[in-house]
Amino acid sequence: MQKEYHMLLSQSIGAPSEPIVAEGDTVKRGQMIAKCPEGKLGANLHASVSGEISAVTDTYIAVTADQVQTADFAPLRSETPLDLIKEAGIVGLGGAGFPTYVKLGKPFKEGGIVIANAAECEPILEHNIKAIEQNAEQLIRGLKIAMEVAHAEKGAVAIKGIHPKAVEKVKSAIDVDNISVTVLDNMYPMGEERAIVREVLGPVLEIDKLPMAAGAIVINAETLCRIQEAVDLKKPLIDKDMTVAGKITGDLIQVFRNVPIGTTVAEMFEKAGGIGPEYGELIMGGPYTGLRTTLGSPVVKTTGGILAAEEFWRGPEKIGLLVCACGADKERLEQIAESMGCEVAGVEYCKQAKEPKPGAPRKCENPGKCPGQVEKVLALKKAGAQALLISNCTDCTNTVMSCAPQLKLPVYHCTDGALRAVNMKLIRRMKTESK
């Protein structure tokens, strides 16, 4: 067990949490150490270990852990489900980190559906599916609580058909008529919330619309499980499930449950058997949308994966970037290109990657359904690209591969290093695995 845990004050969408402890204070696991700023969007923060506050800075609170730790925690004090969710500091645990109390805080006036996003969208990541296989009842209980808070008439679980054991566990755990299961195809980005709404309900939402426009609320599977803990056990969000994978000494893909928030990347690799001496980069998150991290970085509420990728392949002198709204953004592709030793010859965006408003992050008009990329590939070839580096979804990548080889343009994908590290098939010409 590591000695010091750093709890970052910014772990979600919104304003940083405001410290309510001082250096030298003694804290118990589960005790609130920073609050959501009054009147602002944000989340509370709790100590994930018992110990002494060793530092309070503008960006984090450090806790020097007691040598002996227990599973006990300081319980939440609120009474109503929504207040417990807010006090617990629960946010979207699939990566976005939007405060859950806000998402559930405007109940449906009539109708409405809460959808459990159990798609486990990113390749390699397995922790959500493993948790469901072990205790699907917790997921369904969390979904029922969310439905109650949101006054939703219906609930649904969206889960890929390539996980038959988890699908059957979910179906067996459902004991009411108003919760259904939607079995999804195995394609990326099936876990994007507008893709989830499309598959469960039918409509394709415009890029500036939230699921609420279709009478839906989409909540990540682990988030629902943490809602169950907050309401039934009065446990704050202090632990995180995650997948650790890649260039490690133990099994290439491992799942860890209830890791204390603030645990370092280095500690997680040690738990997995130790990191190998040679790797290209460390990624926090999934292969598509994860970001480069360091061994000293702490696990945060939204950490779903920690990956040690394969060493970078040396690329050509000039490479073209084709950016997809569903995968790595322009800055991330530029970072990878630099690590490959390539000069960027040009940048193009998938034709469906549109800005909801000027300067906002791009979103796909219809996630996972690609109209073709020939025009963009030709533009990069004309700009002098000797190869392509792409971040495209399954369907978009298929369209790139339908033309790039004919133009003698080798194709690299932002996920290559992570997937090679675990001996998984690279994202190139892919067949969608059906339900």
TrEMBL record:
Domain RnfC Barrel sandwich hybrid: 2-64
Residues of the NADH-ubiquinone oxidoreductase 51kDa subunit FMN-binding domain: 85-228
Keyword check for Transmembrane: no
GO cellular component: membrane
Organism: Muricomes intestini
Listed GO MF terms: 4 iron, 4 sulfur cluster binding; electron transfer activity; metal ion binding
Keyword Electron transport in annotation: yes
SUPFAM superfamilies xref list: Nqo1 FMN-binding domain-like, Nqo1 middle domain-like, Single hybrid motif
Pfam families attached to this UniProt entry: Complex1_51K, RnfC_N
Coiled coil start-end: none
Name of the protein described by the UniProt record: Proline reductase-associated electron transfer protein PrdC
Keywords: 4Fe-4S, Electron transport, Iron, Iron-sulfur, Metal-binding, Repeat, Transport
